[in-house]
Structure formats: structure tokens, C-alpha cells
Amino acid sequence: MNQVSLTPPSPAAPAAPAPLAARGKVPVSVIVPTLNESKNLPRCLDHLTWADEVVVIDSNSRDDTPKIAAAYGARVVNFTWNKHWPKKRNWALEHVPLKHEWVLMVDADEWIMPELAAEIAQAITDTTRVGFYLNRRFIFMGRWLRHCGYYPSWNLRLLKRGHGHFERLTSVEDTGSGDNEIHEHIVADGPVGYLKADMLHLAFPTIDVFIEKHNRYSNWEAAVQLAGAQGRARGFGDNASLNRRRRLKRWSRLLPFRPTLQFLYSYILQRGFLDGRPGLIFCRLLATYEFLSVIKYQEMRQKGQDELTSQRLSPVPAKDWKQALDTK
């Protein structure tokens, strides 16, 4: 009997370990998007040996990422983004030939624990669902962040192919955040469930990595806010929970003092103080991320204003360099 939950389980309820059946590889195709992930990829692939197919979608990595993937027996598919939609994961869902109808999305800094692998093997036998949410444990400064608003962290990662897409939230195709969907979610077109066991997410092994990633992510945040302000934000499907979160996010963007409010929300209301020193540092970093999002949005709205102001102040006329070349 299938025991997959239809609603998010309580974070306090531990998942009972369940070894994988001895019937061989699990018939699921795992997609791992990569770009220079030689440090993270080996341990990620160590936790995917149970899957029958692993496909690494690589963006012309300059390190040993393709070699590592090949050494583990994964299939490497190169992806070169043309600066237009779709991005990497949606492109893979739409265009890459896969052996199985069930697809699992895993980032290179995520580990699928054995208990979760066993649940996945069971979940794909369910004929009434088209997708399943997985929960992530964020590891930061040697600690599992149980608070700060980062646990539970549900993502729809297990999907029956052809029954969902990553949402699109802005008409700006190149936001400066990279060629991979970062904050976009999969929206399924049918019933979904929730798995109990967690995956581990080692997204921020250093402060430097957090800052580098969130400098890019804030570009995306600003572009999405601009799209919302201009009435062009859009998404796939109709997911009530996801739409509710999006509405709250849009509402929060109208508030003053957003960086300070973000810190208070994460550290006080979401009890980040219970995560000790790592919780304090993490919440302050989240406030910095919010600040970057705010000022980049303002910058996008005022794009070109510095040049226009300078032109008004300068007595030197502008020259048409193309016409100057034609006259020579």
C-alpha cells in the first residue's frame, strides 16, 4: 500500500529509515544542472547511485565537471543558453531524451539520503499523482538551519514528464542571474504528494559563496519586481499555495524598510535566534540580499537617467559614429 502523504508532514516527525529494495536500480531519470561544480558534484553523485539514469546538463564548465560526471557513469548533455526562454532545467525537460517517465531534479549541492531514495522508489509506483514535493535541510556554518524561514523548504522536484513546467515570472529573459532557473518553481498540472524524508542542501559552504549567489539572485528579484510593477509577470498552471506565496511576496515589496523588516521577520518571527550564531549571521545576510534587491529594482526603473542628466549638462553634441564611418 502506498504511504505517500498528500499534505506536508510535520517537520518534527522523523522519517523512518527504509532500505531500497534489492530489485536493482530505481527507474527514474535524475537531471543535475551544472556549471563548474567539480567541488560539489562527486558527493551529489555518490548519493544518486540508486537511480537508473543520471543526466548532467552542463553549461560549458571550465573545470572537471564533465570528467567527474562521466567517471560516475552519468550522461553529459551540454547546454549553451541563447539568452532566451527556456532556461536550463525547462529546456532539459522539453528537449533531452530520457529513459524514464519520472524525472527527479537535483542540484549539484544537494544530497538524496537513502531514506528519501527509498521513498522515491515507492512514490513512482503511485498512478494517481503526477509529482511530489521534497523537503530540504539547509546546512550553514556547520549547522542545520531549523528556523530563519528555511525549514521546512518544500520544492516540487519529482515529476512525471509532460505534467509540469518551471514557471516564468518575468518577461526579462536575461536578468543577470545565470542560465538556470533559481527561484522559479515547477507547477504541476495534476495531483501531487509530499515525501517525508529530507534531502541535504549544502548551498552556502562559505560566506563568499552566499554573497556571490545572492548578488546574482537579487538581479532576478529586481527583474521580477519590475515585471510585476509593469503588469507582465506570468506563470504556468494554477497552484493555490504557490500563488498565495507569490501574492505575499508582491505585497511585501511595497513595504518600507524592507531589509530591516526582513531581518526581524527571519530572526524574530521565524525564530532564527534559536539557530545560534549561524542563525544570526544568516538572517543578517538575508537582510543584505533584500537591500540589494531593493536598490537594483530602483536602478532598473531609473535605467539611463544618469546618461540623460549628463547629456543635459554637457555642451558637447553627440556624434553619430555609424554615419561618420559611412562618409569615409
Summarize the structure.
The chain has 328 residues and is of the alpha/beta class.
- Which fold does the CATH topology of the largest domain refer to? Spore Coat Polysaccharide Biosynthesis Protein SpsA, Chain A
Given as residue ranges, the uncertain stretches (5+ residues, pLDDT < 50) are 11-18, 230-239
| Number of domain units | 2
Shape: globular
Question: Termini separation (Å)?
Answer: 81 Å
**SSE series:** EHEHEHEEHEEEEEEHHHHHH
CATH-level-2 architecture of the largest domain: Alpha-Beta Complex
Q: What's the number of extended β-strand segments?
A: 11
CATH homologous superfamily heading of the largest domain = Spore Coat Polysaccharide Biosynthesis Protein SpsA, Chain A
Rounded radius of gyration (Å): 22 Å
Query: Largest sheet at a glance?
Result: 9 strands, mixed
The proportion of residues forming helix, as a percent range, comes to 25-40%
Mean pLDDT: 85
Briefly, what CATH class of the largest domain?
Alpha Beta
Strand content: 15-25%
Would you tell me the structural class of the helices and strands? Answer: alpha/beta
How many distinct helices? Answer: 10
Chain oligomer state: single chain
